Structure formats: structure tokens, C-alpha cells
Amino acid sequence: AYFELGSMRQKRMLNQFRGPRMLPVVGNAHQMGKTPTEILNRFFGWWNEYDKGNFRYWIGYYSNIMVTSPKYMEFILSSQTLISKSDVYDLTHPWLGLGLLTSTGSKWHKHRKMITPAFHFNILQDFHEVMNENSSKFIEHLRSLATGDNIFDFQDETHYLTLDVICDTAMGVSINAMENRSSAVVQAFKDITYNIKMRAFSPWKRNNLLYRLAPEYPKYCRTLKTLQDFTNEIIEKRIEARNSGVESKIQGDEFSRKKMAFLDTLLSSTVDGRPLTSQELYEEVSTFMFEGHDTTTSGVGFAVYLLSRHPEEQQKLFEEQCEVMGDSGLGSDATFQEISQMKYLDLFIKESQRLYPSVPFIGRFTEKDYMIDGELVPKGTTLNLGLLMLGYNDRVFKDPHRFRPERFEEQKPGPFEYVPFSAGPRNCIGQKFALLEIKTVVSKIVRNFQVLPALDELVSKDGYISTTLGLPPAEKAKRDAHIHKYDPILSASMTLKSENGLHLRLKQRL
Ligand code: HEM
């Protein structure tokens, strides 16, 4: 009775929205599905049913609106007040606390202003050196895997690369994850990101109290402690080194790099006229560690996945590399400027983020009533912004299941019709960093290897992707017949590493 009475006003207001019929107490929870794939299919099913617009659904007494209309996107993403995150972000709190991603109100405003200069053009150029160094190492490692018809899990390998890049740029230390992959810290980073995503899709494990009963809970606590100790120790050492003025003098030491790590920017910054507290430093550095490597892993992974399925587009990319780098420059590092000249690569990454955005959904929570596009959205509503769905809207992207990078040249989507990095004041602060890293790695891969799927028959024959997300049921059934166990995106979800991984083969070009 308490919950029913408490949600009466919301129910009355939300009835104006289209959405599936709900049952008492459970709402629509019984229809959601259990696995990430089932959940995504359910969302796409409703989205098609409600004419590719917004729809509301209830999980028990929690009201949700799936937002995909550009007008709503614009209102929400441009708002300076509707910036509180939905409860799914609470899953990151034990690790990240309240850093830039999860904080709200004046803390977020002040920290955003303070952190913005950390992505200044000059700093990004220094970071590009780190990206180049690490991707060269990565290429050498891939070379050792590119023997004969060897099949390996590409996503898994990429994870270590992006971890090395973010550790060096965020904290100024090298953990050499590519070589020390079994170290406790490296595994801890890997485990915690998997854990957060897995819990987001699991209604029971999402609950903190119930999660304590899960068999993996003790391991989760150990992982958390490993990460907290590691990050706090780096911060302490960095502060000590700064205080004693020995930063640049220790030869061969992990603190000897001259470039400015993100942590250094934080240590030289102030909020309300005071330096950041240890807790604030910890929260922001950890946020960057999380946001800065998992997203780029899937960014590189999905781009390379598409390379393997679409040989014509791969060839076009290779030709562009020859043009920009010159035949004799194919083995060298691309400069910042050369990367910006790679126009087809830019289109290719845009198209891969349309189909497989690294961040498929983002969430907000209304702390008061909002009037959006003539509709009253009541206080206490969770707004799930379906960035993933935007890419499959055939009113914006003609023939959306077709992989065609050129589409971004021919017709630009509106400012709120394609937003893989979000938009407005709370957009991705690391967008330029991310694109630079993804392009640096992909450009090197294309120059050095021909990327092939695990099995030849997985190559797309008609330019269409094999993912069935968003297709009407009849077409979906037709394509389902071609699903192959090696295809990671079909066999699992967009966001969770599948049981099969992203299996590829490489043939050396250089
Ligand atoms: C392909 C790569 C990436 C994608 C697609 C991506 C996407 C996004 C999206 C959609 C948001 C909005 C989240 C929300 O509103 O809840 C976001 C926020 C954020 N991103 Fe990224 N991101 C990427 C890489 C990075 C990198 C490399 C960094 C750091 C080096 C980074 C740091 C952040 C931070 C700190 C926020 C929170 C910003 C704020 O709330 O003010 N991201 N990102």
C-alpha cells in the first residue's frame, strides 16, 4: 500500500506516454528478459512497437522512460540542472566514489571546470606519444599471434593495450599490462569493469544487499581493495615526489617522465581556492582509469571486428594509409597531423560507433518535474537515453543495418540524432583523447596486417552487418539462421565480453 500510494502521481502522469501494459507490483519486470541479449532485444522490440520514439516501462515501482526522440535528447543533454545520474551508476561508487562521471550539482560543475584544461591540445599531443609507443608494442605482440591461421581473442589483447595507455596518461606510471597480464592489479582492472557491466544487467546482483550473498562477493571485495591500494599509493608517491622536487631527476624511475599526467594537472589545480583532497584525487583518477580504457577497448574492438567482416572498406582504409603515410612511411608512427588527414578512417570510426557505440545507454534521474517537448515528466523518473537505438533509426540513417562509412560524408545527422559521446555540458570530456587513441591503433593495425575473421564465411557478402539488433522479427529470424558461434556480437551482447570473445586472424602486410 505504501509503494502503491507513493507511485500514484507518477503513474497518472506517465500514463500519457506510450509503453507496455504493466502488472501490479512487478510493473514490466517480468517482460525484461534475463540475459543482456534478451534485455537489449526487449528494448528494441518496444522501440519498434512504439514507432521508434520514447516509451515508458516500470521495474517494480521504479518508473523509466527510454528516451530516443531527438527533442528529448536535446532538452536533457543541454540542461544544466538535469544532470543527476540514474541509479545504475551507483554500481561504480564503491570503486570510483563521486568523480566527474557520477557527481552532480555544484561539485560536478566545479570539477568539470577544473578538469577541462587537462585535455588541452598540447597535453593531448604528449599523450599521443604514449599512444604511439604502446601501439607499436601492441603491433609487435600481434605479430607474434599472426602465425599461420592462428585464431585469437582480439578484445582480450586490446584490453591490456588501453590499460597501459590510460595508466601512463592518467597517473604517469607504466604498469606494462601487455607484458604483466597476470599481475594482480592488471587483473583487478579487468575484473572490476566486467563486474560493473555484468551487475548492470542483473536485477538481483544490482542490489547491494543481495550482492553480498553472491558467491563472487569476497573476490569482488579483494579486487576493490587491490585497486584502491594501488591508486592511493601512486597518488601518495606522486605527491611526495612533487614536494621533494625530484620528479624529473630520478632516471629510469616511474616518475621520471616529463609529460604532464592527468594526476599532475589535478595536483596543480584548486577547487574553491584549495588543493584537492586525497579522496577527490582518488575519485577523479579512478574515474579516468574506468572511463578511459574500457570504452576505448570496445571502440578499437568493434572497429577491428568490422574491418574483418568488410574487406572492401578495409582495403579503402589501407589505400588511405598509403596515401597519407607514403609507401615508405607505413612502418612509422603517424603524427597528430597525419591522423587528422585520414578522412576515411574518421568516417569508419563514426560508422562503427553508430552501430556499436561503446556506451550504449546513459541515464539521468529527475529530481523535480520537468516539462519536456510539451509533456510533463514527473520527479523521480529514470531517463534512459538509448544512444544505441539512435544509430538504428531508419528515419535518420537510411538502410541502418548496412555498414557504409560514406554515409557520414553524404548526410550529416542532426546534433542530437547521433551522440556516441553524449552532447552538451555533460558530454564526454575524453572524446578527443578517445578518438585519437582509437585512430592511432586502428591505423597501425591496417598498415601492418590484413584483418580476417576466424572463419572465411563470416565475411559479409552483401555489405550488411550480421547483428540482428533492431531488425523486425521476420527479418531477424532469416538472419538468425546465419548466426555463427564465432560471432561475438551475435552470440552475446553489445557490452559484455562473450563466451567466445572476438576471434580474428591476422595476415602480415609489413
Ligand atoms: C570510445 C570511447 C568513449 C566513448 C564512446 C565515451 C562516451 C561517453 C559518454 C556517452 C559519456 C556521457 C556519460 C553520461 O552522461 O553518463 C561520457 C562521459 C565521460 N567520459 Fe567518455 N567516452 C569514451 C572515452 C573516454 C575517455 C578515453 C575518457 C578519459 C580519458 C573519458 C572520460 C569521460 C568522463 C570523465 C566522463 C564524465 C563527464 C562528465 O560527466 O562531466 N571517456 N563518455
TrEMBL record:
<keyword id="KW-0256">Endoplasmic reticulum</keyword>
<keyword id="KW-0479">Metal-binding</keyword>
<keyword id="KW-0560">Oxidoreductase</keyword>
<dbReference type="Pfam" id="PF00067">
    <property type="entry name" value="p450"/>
</dbReference>
<dbReference type="InterPro" id="IPR050196">
    <property type="entry name" value="Cytochrome_P450_Monoox"/>
</dbReference>
<keyword id="KW-0349">Heme</keyword>
<keyword id="KW-0472">Membrane</keyword>
<keyword id="KW-0408">Iron</keyword>
<dbReference type="GO" id="GO:0005506">
    <property type="term" value="F:iron ion binding"/>
</dbReference>
<keyword id="KW-0492">Microsome</keyword>
<comment type="similarity">
    <text>Belongs to the cytochrome P450 family.</text>
</comment>
<dbReference type="GO" id="GO:0020037">
    <property type="term" value="F:heme binding"/>
</dbReference>
<keyword id="KW-0503">Monooxygenase</keyword>
<keyword id="KW-0732">Signal</keyword>
<dbReference type="GO" id="GO:0005789">
    <property type="term" value="C:endoplasmic reticulum membrane"/>
</dbReference>
<dbReference type="InterPro" id="IPR036396">
    <property type="entry name" value="Cyt_P450_sf"/>
</dbReference>
<protein>
    <submittedName>
        <fullName>Probable cytochrome P450 4e1</fullName>
    </submittedName>
</protein>
<feature type="binding site" description="axial binding residue">
    <location>
        <position position="428"/>
    </location>
    <ligand>
        <name>heme</name>
    </ligand>
</feature>
<dbReference type="InterPro" id="IPR017972">
    <property type="entry name" value="Cyt_P450_CS"/>
</dbReference>
<dbReference type="GO" id="GO:0004497">
    <property type="term" value="F:monooxygenase activity"/>
</dbReference>
<dbReference type="InterPro" id="IPR001128">
    <property type="entry name" value="Cyt_P450"/>
</dbReference>
<dbReference type="GO" id="GO:0016705">
    <property type="term" value="F:oxidoreductase activity, acting on paired donors, with incorporation or reduction of molecular oxygen"/>
</dbReference>
<dbReference type="InterPro" id="IPR002401">
    <property type="entry name" value="Cyt_P450_E_grp-I"/>
</dbReference>
